[in-house]
Amino acid sequence: MPWKVWDTMSLCKEFVMLAGQPGADIRELCRRFGIGAKTGYKWSGRFSEEGEQGLGDRSRRPRKSPSRTPLAQEAAVLASGRPYPSLVRVGGDLGCRFA
User: Fold this and answer.
1) Region 44-63: what's the mean pLDDT?
2) How many CB atoms lie within 10 A of CB 76?
3) How far apart are CA 16 and CA 31, in angstroms?
4) How far is CA 24 from CA 17, 20, 89, in A?
5) SS3 of residue 24 by DSSP
6) Average model confidence (pLDDT) for the chain?
7) What whole-number distance in Å separates Cα of residue 31 and Cα of residue 29?
8) In terms of residue numbers, what domain contains 32?
């Protein structure tokens, strides 16, 4: 008997279809599918809000990067022309102080 091959998207679809049935026990479905309750409720919520599009993978890139180097400073480092710029050397050239 061959193994069943499942992809994540089809598992998500099947889970949310079963979870959407009246009287469905989401925690029991989570145990049956081998996923955590938090993941099950997340999938159900995304499906109810966004439909099938909500079940796809999402970007893990942060929405904000407060400590990111300012673009002007980044451009100045790249313009320095050094293939492997030293933080202290380029920082000194740009007038930055390091504690």
Assistant:
1) 85
2) 15
3) 14
4) 10, 7, 63
5) coil
6) 81
7) 5
8) 8-55
